[in-house]
Batch of 2 targets.
Target 1
Amino acid sequence: MTRLKMGMVGGGIGSFIGDVHRKAASIDGMIDLVCGAFSSSEEKSIASAEALGIPKKRAYKSFEEMILEEAKLPQEERMDFVSIVTPNHMHFPPAKMALEHGFHVICDKPMTLTLDEATTLKQVVNSSNKVFALTHNYTGYPMIKQAKAMISKGDLGTIRKVNAQYLQGWLATAVEKTGQKQAAWRVDPKRSGIGGALGDIGTHAENLIEYVTGMQISELAADLSAFGDGRTLDDDGNILLRFENGAKGTLSFSQIATGEENNLGIRVYGTKGSVEWYQENPNELTVRWLDQPKQIYTPGGNGSYPESSEYVRIPAGHPEGYLEGFATIYRSFAKELSQIKKGESPSTVRDFPTVDDGVRGMKFIYAAVESSKNNASWTKI
Amino acid sequence: MTRLKMGMVGGGIGSFIGDVHRKAASIDGMIDLVCGAFSSSEEKSIASAEALGIPKKRAYKSFEEMILEEAKLPQEERMDFVSIVTPNHMHFPPAKMALEHGFHVICDKPMTLTLDEATTLKQVVNSSNKVFALTHNYTGYPMIKQAKAMISKGDLGTIRKVNAQYLQGWLATAVEKTGQKQAAWRVDPKRSGIGGALGDIGTHAENLIEYVTGMQISELAADLSAFGDGRTLDDDGNILLRFENGAKGTLSFSQIATGEENNLGIRVYGTKGSVEWYQENPNELTVRWLDQPKQIYTPGGNGSYPESSEYVRIPAGHPEGYLEGFATIYRSFAKELSQIKKGESPSTVRDFPTVDDGVRGMKFIYAAVESSKNNASWTKI
Amino acid sequence: MTRLKMGMVGGGIGSFIGDVHRKAASIDGMIDLVCGAFSSSEEKSIASAEALGIPKKRAYKSFEEMILEEAKLPQEERMDFVSIVTPNHMHFPPAKMALEHGFHVICDKPMTLTLDEATTLKQVVNSSNKVFALTHNYTGYPMIKQAKAMISKGDLGTIRKVNAQYLQGWLATAVEKTGQKQAAWRVDPKRSGIGGALGDIGTHAENLIEYVTGMQISELAADLSAFGDGRTLDDDGNILLRFENGAKGTLSFSQIATGEENNLGIRVYGTKGSVEWYQENPNELTVRWLDQPKQIYTPGGNGSYPESSEYVRIPAGHPEGYLEGFATIYRSFAKELSQIKKGESPSTVRDFPTVDDGVRGMKFIYAAVESSKNNASWTKI
Amino acid sequence: MTRLKMGMVGGGIGSFIGDVHRKAASIDGMIDLVCGAFSSSEEKSIASAEALGIPKKRAYKSFEEMILEEAKLPQEERMDFVSIVTPNHMHFPPAKMALEHGFHVICDKPMTLTLDEATTLKQVVNSSNKVFALTHNYTGYPMIKQAKAMISKGDLGTIRKVNAQYLQGWLATAVEKTGQKQAAWRVDPKRSGIGGALGDIGTHAENLIEYVTGMQISELAADLSAFGDGRTLDDDGNILLRFENGAKGTLSFSQIATGEENNLGIRVYGTKGSVEWYQENPNELTVRWLDQPKQIYTPGGNGSYPESSEYVRIPAGHPEGYLEGFATIYRSFAKELSQIKKGESPSTVRDFPTVDDGVRGMKFIYAAVESSKNNASWTKI
């Protein structure tokens, strides 16, 4: 195995999501971080490189410089792909440029600042012949793979009802006014786009729903709120969902749900059975049946499907967490890149979120905002 | 203490809710069942009386007969109040007649078949000088009392978000076509009214929300469904909620949520803290705070408020259940009747659901049905 | 059905366990409390009767008086059985006298103050032709019945390991010195016998283990402690268990386990499967299998055996609690008494703990105390 | 930061624990795997190196070769430390040789095959001036750090009772006869030593108990069993514990606990409070108090102590798992090595299990086996 070389945009020391991406990329031993434009401040970018054990010369002062300079390096030395971990408004520019300069891209979500950017990016990806992955990391959890497999095989029958939630409380007070950087950009439309919590966590829930069920939301009725004093972007929302196949549901998300940490959860009810899962205890999947006792599935545990077990790194009962789920996105992305590098044709089924998921997420944001402006009237995605 | 004497309408042997009412009335040793019109079949009514240890002469063939005959008995012998445990369409007639003949009434929910009946009944109650209680039994759980007290004292700050659910799966298949009586009347508009699951369990959730938060739902947007083949009444619904104070929320209920038993739950988020409770494990109240660790309150356990502890019958750690919560409604009702009997003035705060809750529940049903007909448009309650 | 008439020894107003017995006896509508010697203080006994709605003439000043006076009443009026709810030292005298005067007896646990009393009582019971029941109430929980049935049918294979615990924290401080009556008699050898927590809760766990598994503990090695300052009776214990069939296990109990409420629990491991149950959330039975996912059984829920479901009063998902489990002992006892009254021969399988369980419990106490004196050496029961 | 270079003994592709060590070493980006003697088969060692992206020349055919050859490399190139992930009988030889040739060592548990080896190894470590770490990985969980900190600060008062369990079911059937390698060496005294499950998982529990409480087990009474047909080593055990300070407790472990996955758990009761933790859901620490409601602490969540939070990699609510706990051992080990490399004096408190923990674990095994041979008589550790 030849290890892949990663360049990073954003993620200077102290950032939350940059560090998550680095750790996730490391776990499976397939990827080495070799360079980065870690910060818009050159000084900070260099300091970050130093702390990460990366030679100073590969600490770039901008993503443009990184892409241009790396492209000049011999193939065995230059980065294979770019990981983009900046705030939303800085996703599209480096993604587009990297793809156009021959680099694969893995990017944090939501994919872009605007829907226009998203559709443009899709065209760029399609014409680039490069791989683009979006880190909707929650789809990497084994129990989510198990739920998806059970639904896809028809174990649960026809799906009729979906309830999803994504509840956080960290914006319950005005932390954005306290110098907290994570909060500051998330409540700022210039950096976040038209969705607040909607874009930050609502899209995760939307992606999870569609991933697990294999169904598309056809229309929605969204009641978004900005409870925080002076906030222009939503920090809470309640949404009615209708699916193409006639199923219905709800999605409730919040960043002002006091005391909640990262409570993403989903329940899916079919004619024969149902599944229930919560991210904070991700190694349990509750499955209910018409006439059998409730079951608890665990990663690699009794009854697990191969579609789930192949994503489990350690024996049943040894809990995997957020970083491992995230790492699964990186691993699947890396496997595809390795196949391409070896000249093999990659598998037709892409086992990670793609630019299509990214466009879908942006359409979801736009539909929800529009619906909410129209007093929660039904709006097609 | 003089024990109170109860007459029952409905609840023949084999009925679900009749037996629940009898057990709930028994637990605290304040009430004796003395007579009943247990069934529209005289034979069955007599057989039920016999099985219950009630003399044959007090097994009546109709509620009319029971009310008229009991009224003739000397006061120390005749029933003090009527318990109505029939399907919805048979709530109003006996309730009205009993009140008009000088008997107190305790009645199952939803209060009546129609909203008109409900408003009429309210007038009857008000002009009767008798006590009317409605068995929204879930408000009897100690941890619900605790949550209500914490919110009412302001512990959680201003309430901003409410998520409630009431999920059952017993109508996931067409059990109403298998001779199951419980199912048969619930899917029949003539006996249930215009709400199906909405009336049967949705009103419980609505009542719980308003009871716990002390806030009123001002408007709602409801998307009701009848998934079951040939059903005309809803068996599932998803509702957006808006409250008078600006709080928002969701209510999702279902009787086709495969595998769910009786999963009533509520989460309430305030500016300072939040509470979470599920009926299937009712002896835990999860409380989250802005800056303190999550707490688990238990009935009579450390930190419980008197407003909650006074409803606990046994020491902390000895779980109370559905029947005890139900019994609490009966006990509070009985206490008020005892005070009246003794000539004392009853406490001004009525500690059980009243005719006002009943009217509110019917308005909720009507608003939800209307909203759903108008494609989930916002409808005032 | 003719209702049965109960006389009570002990249980004056304010007592914990007397009230529990009364409520448990009431729930199923088969038993009426008609008389009592509620307290050794005549005044208190009369006040208790009054509060309970019992005529003053049937409030006796001693159990002796009650037994003698009731025996003189006509059969249709006099009590059918005596319920004994006094501290341990006052179990044997009224039990013996009642049986000898023709009354059935239901008695709290542990059965007697001493092992001698227990063996004597067994002889009395055997020669009396009367029914004696012991309220090891935890065996009344439906999920315990389910576990017992699964083991007895061989679902779990051969049992090899048992872990049980009964953890309370209410004696973690010296509450017996604060005037707390419940604590005072429990730490007093004259009223409790040679076991402290061992007798009070350890015997419950011992009974539960043998009831669920159908196996007898053959020998034990007990390390008992009296952590509380000045206590002479144990308030904590850890015991190794060996069973007749070669299985092994542990039993850990405590009343100084700070913060624990009433945490009785059991795990039983067989060659094919295992069960796990906790009293504080009694409506879940966790079942694990060699090669199937973990299951959660619920009372009356999918997959429940008839041996369990027949003890469920309300549909699955409507939690039953401590009082209902306790009531099941009373109900089974009452059913047997009714059969006897009608002249039917009672079922050969007695569905409640008997004098044999009581003797067994006393032998367990004596063996544990002896073992502990000998530095936890193996001691036969 | 200069990254550290790791050489591995054992852990050929397909091994369980070798892969765990590699992933754990990778997560924090401080360590690179540079060489290995991955298998006693040279061919397999080379294949493993290839799969891991390690140059063939640094795939050694034995640990002796690896140590000798690496020692010859220039300092900036050669490995800094050896990670030993072989079965128990192959811990001591490479550990001793590596230390004697100037390499630091991190080693899987139990530390050695025999107690003699353990005491010898301690001398080797002490005279080597090198760092030795033992991967009792469960002490790396943040909630274990939190529990330890709370106890050490006296929050729980004086500790009086400890209950620990480590329950697995994977040896419930004779998997060692099916060609399962993990099982084969674990039931073989030549490769495992005198303890079976006792050494494999019992020592983890012992280490966890002493780590969390800060107390030493003074004596124990162990009842070990070999339930599996033909097994000579224990596969199950129940142990009474006594601590130096007068506390008492139990430890029950098993590998024949059918259906259990990796159920390590601990409860510690003090005079003021208690803690409870289970490895399968490691991100919750339950804390009970004398007079406050039960609390649930989470990694980095409200109320977490710095002693715990510094080990948390991602915000509260983003679960960390087994690999992260394991990685914490590696990270602390790597930090100390980095300090040494930089010429700094390392912190006096070693934040990872050391050779002393290893000796202690071996003494525990020997004491338990001796006690069990003497019919569970009390034996000093």
Target 2
Amino acid sequence: MSKERIKFPVRIGLLGCGTVGGGVIRLIAENQEYLTSRVGAPLEIRRVLVRDAEKDRVPECRREWITTAADEVFAKDIDVLVEVIGGEEPAKTLIERAIREGKGVVTANKLLLAKHGPALVRMATEHGVDLAFEASVGGGIPIIRTLREALTSDWVESVHGILNGTCNYILTRMRDGKVSFDVALGEAQAKGYAEADPTLDVDGHDAAQKLCVISMLAFGANVHESDVPVEGIRLVDQLDFRFAERFGYTIKHLVIGRDLGDRIALRVHPALIPKHSVLANIDGVLNGVLVVGRGLGPCLLVGRGAGDMPTAVSVVADIVDVARSKIGGEPGLSTRGIQTQDRALAPLAEVTSRFYLRFDVEDRPGVLGKIASGLGEAGVSIEQMVQEGRAVEVDDAVPVLIITHACREGAVRAALDSIGREVFMHGRPRLLRIEDV
Amino acid sequence: MSKERIKFPVRIGLLGCGTVGGGVIRLIAENQEYLTSRVGAPLEIRRVLVRDAEKDRVPECRREWITTAADEVFAKDIDVLVEVIGGEEPAKTLIERAIREGKGVVTANKLLLAKHGPALVRMATEHGVDLAFEASVGGGIPIIRTLREALTSDWVESVHGILNGTCNYILTRMRDGKVSFDVALGEAQAKGYAEADPTLDVDGHDAAQKLCVISMLAFGANVHESDVPVEGIRLVDQLDFRFAERFGYTIKHLVIGRDLGDRIALRVHPALIPKHSVLANIDGVLNGVLVVGRGLGPCLLVGRGAGDMPTAVSVVADIVDVARSKIGGEPGLSTRGIQTQDRALAPLAEVTSRFYLRFDVEDRPGVLGKIASGLGEAGVSIEQMVQEGRAVEVDDAVPVLIITHACREGAVRAALDSIGREVFMHGRPRLLRIEDV
């Protein structure tokens, strides 16, 4: 490096010193020399905000950095605020303060970005400061960077993501270990891949928040989590896996976004995908995102979607970016060009796909015919139909499985409503979407 | 954007106006507004160097830009030189001139980077200018960006890549269509996926060049193509696919790099990988790179590895980066921190893996025993052994297939040399490495 201009350190204030924060401190300490050469100046942590000042921290965390008062972080003359406390408050207030005071911001906060991303990006742009958030989605996967930078000159047609490691671990265990949802969930909890209360993960809300963040960048859309139709994986069972396999599919929990031009279609749900799909082997706690750009074609990114070190690596990569753009005298590059607007959302009923339908029915003559004509009347055309096994006792249910040709979801729903009222039905008909991805 | 400092356009000189160059011109024209907002200033093409001034170009290419004299490109006061002519010369001379004159450089030239990458990066660093080369490897896949930026604070343990679309198309067709290598090659040529002379692709040299570029970033190594052990795919046949399948594998042509700490191991060859590997479904002309970082864990990137538009999208993303760092007053960021040195290479004989071995032998008693003891004497331990079918006539060969436990390649080679001399052998024993990736 012959033309260095900056000799001053880049001063960092860190909010939170849990596993990710500790990882950030450790990575900065371990890679000091290399990072200095990448940034053009040393990175120096000045303050670390924690709740409990007495708790043990990673050995690289110096005692004098620790504070329990947010004002202390801002009192030090910091250049970059790094937020890894998570949750809405006090993260939002502190990040907004940092933006107003002209500091660069790095955050790993998915919830915050999903709820207030467009507003925070706008605020950062107005104040000409950086707001980087690679670690908010997909842990160590450079999805934000890729959407933001590499697709600069392209137009994103669709995004398909496996973005919840808990769901993916459970579905992988159900497929490979032939265990029930409950058993797989118990295993995930035992291994620390699922929370004691797994609602946020297995019901799809975590994935929906990530789709909000992705939609901001991929489709320039202000999206609120409540706008996104969400289904979790609780209803998927072994029978579904068995038939998916038989039809040549596997089952994954997906976030899906598609730009239809005049509007966008967003949804989060389990889906059948072909066994030979590039997404099919993304198993266990791995995450993956398939972006299809008009010019670029398909681009798939896969990696550990969670975990301290992958997330910390992403946070440090963002710190480097923000520090560089700060000392380059041109802060604000990370958010420049991100423009969002309210975009019309296509209702789920109007989204077209193929469907896997399952009817648990009484085993008696005429039932298959009634199902088939019920679908036909709604304009739903059948590609494959399988009835397997015989009921052992008269009242036992047997499953009827159907793969439809592509049609509007509204049409299928109408057919299921009417078939669902037939006396031969045991329970409600089930529907899984098929994504030929 | 409230704090723009730059109102001047970023002036571009383009070397070459073939399919990629035309794509670059088109993308810049089509996305002018968005690019301006991303860069903070408009991108303006000033000169386009071509060989034939009379040839038809994309409609967005203005007549007055065209020149056949390199000096003309430099006479215009350009900020960024974009090289998409390929080949060693005149690309090298023109890029070196641009670096000396303080211009930012974007290149898609794999051959040039493989041969002179470390020297050109050093030169760019010394002159404080940018040298960006995302499009040189993996077309639209952001592998360079990911290695350079996202892994800033991490240490790359290994890289596995499917980086030659021609090989991958041929192997995919051989697997799925059960056709011979020659038939698959003919199809690839008919579809424009393979050159009339396919040597560079099917013999692995193209992939080896890409591994050189990757090694520069992933392992900080000066590597020359001739340092890399290379095997192509000509010897893989239907029997190999059949047995690979039976053992639970598929066959892919891989580039492999591994940092062993004191030295690095590099190689390019076809390999058996598990059917459930994330690399197994990367089919047809898709490319993919799996990077394993110490902190990050596995990170897989998949996309179109070639093609005009994916490559053009990568070139434009690089132009944006270089333009931004130029107008930010801090050029040279793209290469800052890339440091290379001569690193010791582990000889192939010392690399450890499992092996798939194939012996076409005379069908007579005692042969299996001789093969097994030949391997045992060399210290190679057998995991599975299959002899299938009986020879129809006395002199017909039957294949004996063996999967070994992990061992040094040198040991296996020694055993194959001695078994290969046995009179019962028809042809030479065959070896494919197994990568549990």
